[in-house]
Amino acid sequence: MTRILIVDDEASTLASLSRAFRLAGYDAVVCDSAARAIDLLRHERFDLVFSDVVMPGQDGLAMLAELRDIGVATPVIMISGQATIDMAVRSTRLGAVDFLEKPVSSDKLLLTVENALRLTRLEEENRQLRRRVGRHDIVWKSEAMRRVLAQVDRVAASETRVCILGETGTGKELVARALHERSPRHDRPFVTVNCAAVPSELIESELFGHEKGAFTGAAARHLGKFEQAHGGTLFLDEIGDMPAAMQAKLLRLLQEGELERIGGERPIPVNARVLVATHHDLESLVRKSSFREDLYHRVFVFPILMPPLRERLDDVPLLADHFAALVADQNGWKPRGFTPAAVEQLLAYSWPGNVRELRNIVERVLLLTDGAVDGATVRQVLSGRQLASGPAAGSGPLADRVAAFEREVVLAELNAHGHRVAETARALGIERSHLYKKCQQLAIDMKAERK
Ligand SMILES: Nc1ncnc2c1ncn2[C@@H]1O[C@H](COP(=O)(O)OP(=O)(O)OP(=O)(O)O)[C@@H](O)[C@H]1O
Ligand SMILES: [Mg+2]
Q1: What is the pLDDT of residue 295?
Q2: What's the pLDDT at 128?
Q3: Ligand 1 pocket test target in 140, 162, 173 with most atoms within 8 Å of CB
Q4: S-S: 309 plus which of 141, 149, 171, 351, CB 3.0-4.6 Å?
Q5: Between the CA of residue 125 and those of 120, 140, 188, what are the distances in Å?
């Protein structure tokens, strides 16, 4: 229930205002001095304050100033029997949302309350929107990205299945999310499954869910991702890595529009728009028979190809600024820019890990500098990307220096492969199990960039 605090030294005003508010269905609390009001506002939640200006002791304007000083942001409306222009101006400057002259008709009073509440709601929504936009904002300027986003707009409104293709770290997931946000399903859930990250024996339960007791350890019913995405969008990331048995089940689901939970006895209708992504060349997987051709035709309806970063260098300076702002914000640092020489270094690099790699580089560069980022620091970090800090760098026992070098190499390779274990292990010429052990030894968080 909306709670309104009324502050006035006159008992008759307190009585008439509180009666009008209560009749309109609000909860009204009265208080006869500014000091007591401040105390109440410190300890209790109110949605709105109505305050007299002229009162013995602290007046209403001084109260407003003190509330802002101590960080109480509840909207305040001033109300006065001796209103002057100067008073109205001062109260607006202090952040009062409105200024009323006594006597106030109850119609005017209630209208003022509604307006003030609407304004606060809007401000709160805007704040949340800004927060959300920051992380999932797509930053671009290049013609290549303009074409991608035009395609997103073209298919967003339909139910067409979209397949997002592109190298690691090019922004496939971001584009999938944007497609959902721009679709009629935007206020329903967006659910992601990374098919490469779920162990093959768990993937059916992850996608379709299971009934209680369906297998050892199934202590309760579990809703699969398809059901969690009901009414919304299910993003099947890395679909090229889906195990063969699951491919067959997914095909049946897409043909029939129904699924069965493991251990379930009846089919459940599915209403989730399916988007898929892969960094593999799906056609060559089909030729090698590791991806079913019939499933390929079901999911590969409208392809969107994410251009690698090296083919849209126009975006690099914008992305660098964007990530610098994000990283600064996350760490509570002052925002910082890049010198022209630093930007030149970024443009000259080949970006095998694409946007994700750029993001990591920006973070490391910011850690190394205080003021604006200069060319030398970027060069240092970029060459370190290929050569780590050089086996000769640093000081201390040989074992520590070797470990530090090893850590850089493994981290760089993980980043270049979007933290995909199988590929990283292959690139380093070691077994997956060996890579797991190495990461443990070297205190590397393998999942760092993966959610
Ligand atoms: N155009 C862009 N604007 C802002 N941020 C971006 C952009 N493209 C990618 N990013 C950011 O870069 C990172 C990698 O993007 P994303 O996870 O979408 O790539 P991906 O193609 O799915 O990679 P992978 O194949 O490795 O899964 C994310 O942090 C994402 O927010
Ligand atoms: Mg991805």
Answers
A1: 97
A2: 62
A3: 173
A4: 351
A5: 9, 25, 18
Burial of 170 (0-12, 13-18, 19+ CB in 10 A): buried
DSSP reduced 3-state for 191: strand
Q: Quickly state the pLDDT bin for 327 (edges 50, 70, 90).
A: confident
**Phi, psi (degrees; rounded to nearest 5) at 27:** -95, 120
Q: For residue 437, how far is its CA from the centre of ligand 2 (angstroms)?
A: 24
Grade residue 135 by pLDDT with cuts at 50, 70 and 90.
Answer: low
Q: Of all protein residues, whose CA lies closest to atom 23 belonging to ligand 1?
A: 169
Q: Which atom of ligand 1 is nearest to the CA of 170?
A: 21
Report the pLDDT value the prediction gives residue 310, as an integer from 0 to 100.
94
Most ligand 1 atoms within 8 A of CB, residue of 145, 236, 355 to mutate: 355
Fold type of domain 143-307: Rossmann fold (3.40.50)
Instruction: Please give the average per-residue pLDDT across 68-77, as a whole number.
Output: 86
- Does the pLDDT of residue 362 top 50, yes or no? yes
Q: Angle 237-225-153 (CA atoms, 0-180°, nearest 5)?
A: 55
357 lines ligand 1 (CB under 6 A): no
CA distances from residue 151 to 9, 70, 310, 438 in whole angstroms, order as listed: 64, 50, 21, 42
354 CA from centroid of ligand 2 (Å): 12
Q: Do domains 143-307 and 312-441 have the same CATH topology?
A: no
The structural domains of the chain, with segments of one domain joined by +, span 3-133, 143-307, 312-441
Q: How far apart are CA 52 and CA 32, in angstroms?
A: 10
CATH class of 312-441: mainly alpha
CA of 359 to the centre of ligand 1 (A): 9
418 lines ligand 1 (CB under 6 A): yes
Question: What is the per-residue pLDDT across 81-125, written as a single tens digit (0 to 9) for each?
Answer: 988 889 999 998 888 999 999 888 989 999 999 999 998 888 777
CA of 175 to the centre of ligand 1 (A): 8
Q: pTM for this structure? A: 0.62
Fold held by 3-133: Rossmann fold (3.40.50)
Ligand 1 site, residue 138, Cβ cutoff 6 A? yes
pLDDT value at 152 more than 90: yes
Read off the pLDDT band of 389 (50, 70, 90).
very low
Helix (H, G, I), strand (E, B), or coil: what is residue 151?
helix
